[in-house]
Q: What sequence folds into this?
């Protein structure tokens, strides 16, 4: 018995040691024992959005995936910044085999993804598979995921900035929905003694980029930092920054503008008539407001009547990583096309408030039912289809400093009664300085 026990212990130790001797960096195999290609999907959707996403992954595995011997494992990675941080950590350790095959990513990951050495870009996917079609996706949404001439990923959970308003209060005043800053200012006399703020906002990098885009200008060069590293402001010499600042100060002088960041909580409590925020907030706002008042959704306001309409796409995209395995890359392409198809995009949009990125998704029953119940949801979809692809979101190296510098200078113009000309000069000096410092630190 003792000899048998000793033999069994030796066998257990041998098996354990053999298992432990497996190299840590061993490449994942494409197929499991049943001949199914296994791929991993990192995502950032939680709560109701996460449930809807899980349903679509399950649907893929039971239909398209089953037909093509593909199985997707979805792994929640927290907020976008958390997922990007994990991607960066994996890249810094060089353990690229720990990267997923597909990842949901927002703008915070664009630069590091492109420079990772592990990116399987849409351009590369198209070169491998001519059937990988992006022509069915909204041009403005697709363009948001380009960088330095490379199509990084495809739009997935897409949003744009819209204007929410208290429809009940507006109807009580028999007032029309404003389209421009001047229109908002013209409403102030109606609400002057109502006890509510008319419009609260403090421009930042994304919103200033949108308003300058309406004036036919970029905020920074290199197409707002999308075709190369931005090195200087592009809105000073053409007068666009001065035009915006002048219109913004006029709006403040009218009494209509409250010089604070718009608060969704205050809006939902009926304390603000108009507020600009992401279209993805629509469902949550409606739930919070309940029956306190009727909420309306309008297009992002224009700087003036000469400005074009539009607001750039934001949200998140799906990117793929190069596993070095042709089967896994093919499986990733199949999964990405499924998740950006019209039916899936319509279902995700209907349940979350995101805009479906597929051009034909608006014809799907799920989205049609949403519009029947809430017709205002069509505003964000229409706005994005009408936003030209040349209107690009802003990508700069010193993103955080840029964001707060813009807010501080615009606020100082109002609180310290600086002229738009003085403010434009001060902004140009600081923002150009930030870009130059970044370029020197990151040659």
A:
């Amino acid at each position: 018995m003792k000899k048998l026990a000793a033999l069994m212990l030796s066998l257990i130790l041998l098996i354990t040691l053999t298992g432990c001797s497996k190299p840590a960096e061993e490449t994942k195999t494409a197929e499991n024992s049943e001949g199914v290609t296994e791929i991993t999907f990192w995502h950032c959707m939680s709560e109701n959005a996460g449930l809807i996403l899980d349903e679509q992954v399950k649907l893929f595995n039971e239909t398209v995936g089953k037909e093509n011997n593909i199985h997707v494992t979805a792994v929640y990675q927290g907020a976008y910044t958390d997922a990007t941080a994990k991607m960066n950590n994996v890249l810094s350790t060089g353990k690229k085999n720990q990267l997923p095959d597909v990842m949901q990513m927002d703008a915070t990951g664009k630069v590091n993804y492109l420079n990772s050495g592990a990116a399987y870009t849409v351009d590369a996917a198209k070169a491998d598979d001519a059937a990988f079609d992006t022509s069915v996706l909204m041009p403005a949404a697709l363009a948001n995921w380009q960088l330095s001439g490379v199509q990084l990923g495809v739009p997935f959970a897409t949003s744009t900035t819209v204007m929410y308003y208290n429809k009940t209060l507006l109807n009580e005043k028999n007032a029309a929905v404003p389209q421009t800053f001047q229109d908002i200012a013209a409403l102030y006399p109606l609400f002057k003694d109502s006890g509510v703020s008319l419009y609260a906002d403090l421009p930042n990098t994304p919103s200033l980029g949108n308003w300058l885009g309406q004036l036919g200008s970029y905020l920074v060069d290199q197409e707002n930092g999308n075709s190369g590293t931005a090195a200087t402001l592009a809105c000073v010499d053409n007068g666009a920054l001065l035009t915006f600042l002048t219109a913004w100060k006029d709006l403040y002088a009218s009494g209509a503008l409250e010089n604070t960041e718009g608060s969704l909580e205050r809006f939902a409590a009926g304390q603000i008539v108009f507020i600009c925020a992401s279209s993805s907030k629509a469902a949550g706002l409606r739930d919070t407001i309940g029956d306190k008042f009727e909420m309306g959704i309008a297009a992002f306001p224009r700087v003036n009547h000469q400005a074009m309409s539009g607001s750039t796409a934001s949200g998140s995209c799906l990117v793929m990583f190069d596993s070095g395995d042709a089967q896994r890359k093919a499986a990733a392409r199949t999964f990405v096309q499924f998740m950006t198809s019209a039916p899936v995009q319509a279902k995700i949009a209907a349940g979350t408030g995101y805009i479906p990125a597929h051009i034909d998704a608006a014809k799907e029953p799920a989205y049609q039912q949403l519009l029947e119940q809430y017709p205002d949801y069509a505003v964000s979809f229409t706005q994005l289809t009408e936003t030209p692809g040349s209107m690009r979101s802003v990508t700069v190296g010193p993103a955080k400093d840029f964001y707060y510098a813009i807010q501080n200078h615009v606020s100082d113009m109002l609180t310290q009664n600086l002229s738009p000309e003085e403010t434009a000069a001060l902004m140009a000096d600081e923002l150009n300085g930030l870009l130059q410092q970044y370029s020197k630190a990151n040659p």
Remarks:
- The longest strand covers residues 154-166.
